[in-house]
Amino acid sequence: MADNKPNNKPLISGFLMSTQLMELNACTRCKECMNWCPTYAVRPDRPEITPMYKIAKFREMLDSQYGLRAKLFGPKPLHEDEINKYTEDTYYCTTCGVCGTVCESAILTVELWEAIRPNLVARGNGPYGKQSFFPKLLKTDRNPYQAKQEERLCWVPKDAKVDESGKIAYFAGCTAAYRQQALGVATVRVLNALGVDFCMLGKDEWCCASALVRTGQRDVMKEHAVHNIDALKDRGVETVLYACAGCMRTATIDWPRWYEGYIPYKNVPLSVYLREKIRSGEVDYKRSIDYTVTFHDPCHSGRHLMHIQGRDWAFEAPRDVLQSIPGLKFIDMERSREFQRCCGAGGGVKAGIPDLALDCAVNRLRDAEQVKADIIASTCPFCRRNIMDGRNSVKSQIKVLDVVELVAAAMGLDVTIPENPYTKYQEQDTIVCKDVCKLETVIGKEAGKDIVGEAH
Amino acid sequence: MAFYTLGLTFSIVIALTVVVLAIWLYGMYFNFKKWGIGSTGYQEPLAHSFWLFIATWIHEAFKDGVWVFIRTLILDVLLLRRTLRRSPVRWVMHMAIFYGFVTLAALSGLGLFMDIIEHFNILGMAHEAEMVKKSMELPFDIFGYLLLFGSTISILRRILLKEVRDATTAYDVVLIGGVFLITITGFYAEWMRGNAFLVGDVFANPVYAPHFALIHTILALCLFAFILPWSRYLHVIAAPMTILANRGGE
């Protein structure tokens, strides 16, 4: 039943920086954000989910408590229905950040949404839907799939060489370890083939906790950030490679906010590292990948990091890697790089509002169909998962692969995943090369039965 | 020609100006203090202070060094680079309104200052002050036309472009209509004084010219002191401050 009674529970705004409160007044209502918002594109009947309206609403609520009228006559009581509606609108956002890219007032919208959400959580209105499982799952299992930490490396082939410690580390992330192991195997094989000595954290690799930050549930965040940084420091790591855009973003932007000591290592996207190897002539391609491939820029390694690590790392490195592959015909989608259309999985949307995530994914799939791509390549397992779901829902023929898997296939490497306790949960497109390379989809018996669909 | 009309005297106008400025300043103080209830950083303690808001803003704006601040100030605040990237037409409109309004406001302030010098004959410079005021007539006209050009584009966009027209709200109408009205009354007051730039004496009417000048002044001051700090039009101040605090943004 609707709870429309006014109450004295205060509006909480303490997670917002004072300059972010100023941002609420900086919106000029130019409506540019509405032209680009991926969720509004699939929910055009709900303008209230767009940045402009969400900013206006929070400003209105804040003014009702702290504005001139409130100062003269006292704050207005807040209505629970109003706050609950606002909470829903706020969580109908993938935190993709395209609104921030096009904002004429330079409002840092991703930071703003991620600062508004903890206030709603603290007030008892957020998070949304199944997102509330994240803290408990991470606190208990240290990953969102209820998997055993001891089995983090169960997918690593017996003949692969992975060190206990070293200057280079590969941070695989939960999804590559438990749900998209083809990505993990391809990464390990490629690094081995290039003669790179690297280590992995094994059971000491905890979830990056991206989902907690995105959904405003910051409580367990510190434990994960501090643990992972210390684990990497203990192994003497100087460079950490990421084949997961979500982990990369969180490790680069979020972890340092929770860590008080010095962080001695550098975070590097795997595609950047591979491009260096390709440029130095160390990559030996043996096969031709005769497909038309487009690249989906993950929000987390693209827009979120472009101002920290530069546009070249964020956008050009994965494209350069793809274009180095023999036979591969590369084509960009109309919306690419900083203007890319979000796949819809981020910001906890995949877990909280799966139908919204699916509709966004279908839109992105249509972008790829427009350029007649056979394969959508990406560097984010979550984007991949969601675009595959969108693909399945409309029964499209497009396959979704990771850039490193295409590199491994072109290098002629054996990427067979050893049988392990999580084989039954696997669901991913793969490229299988014998005489010629073919695209296939592998679906385990218990795929897609996780408590929460994604932990982005 | 007498400027003061309807019983207003020089002293009353000065007193009203001080009151208007005080209201504007209090409005800004009020908003800065409201913003100050936020924190000083990610997961940092709450500021709850006007001064800590100022300190946080300075810290954020200069985080990447003074050169980034200056670059942002020139490219993103003064040249509206982010608007240009999105829409050249909107950029022309904003530039015309921004520079028209800001320069006219500055000229008005200077004019008032010269009025004070002239009235009290400070340092015996009454005559020089009058000369300065005379030399300001042309810039007043040029920037007035610039403002008129910008506000005309903004009104035409809302009338002619369906997409913009459909999205127009009452708030847009009040702000754009207000700016347009202030511009038009300013021009008409100028034209009624006679010998105006471009139109000469066509509209000259010495009896009602002061009345129109007064209406124009009241409208402009109302927008400045009673509406900007107390409504969502605060973005006129908050947007450039945000651009600087975020060092140009994404």
Question: Care to describe what's here?
Answer:
The complex is a heterodimer of chains A (456) and B (250). Chain A is of the alpha/beta class. In chain A, 45% of the residues lie in helices and 10% in strands. Chain A has a 4-stranded parallel β-sheet, sandwiched between helices. A 3-stranded parallel β-sheet of chain A has the order 3-4-5. In chain A, helix 11 (181-193) packs across helix 21, helix 13 (221-234) crosses helix 14 and helix 19 packs across helix 20. Chain A is globular, with a radius of gyration of 22 Å. The mean pLDDT of chain B is 87. At the A-B interface, helix 1, helix 4 and helix 7 of A face helix 1, helix 2, helix 4 and helix 11 of B.
Count of extended strands of chain B? 0
* Alpha-beta content class of chain B: mainly alpha
Most extensive protein-chain contact, per-chain counts: A-B, 43 and 44 residues
What assembly state would you assign to the polypeptide chains in this entry? heterodimer
Report Rg of chain A: 22 Å
Number of H/I helices of chain A: 21
> Which bin fits the share of residues in helices of chain B?
over 70%
Which word captures the global form of chain A?
globular
Count the strands of chain A? 11
Side by side, the strands of the main sheet of chain A go 7-6-8-9
Portion of residues in beta strands of chain A equals 5-15%
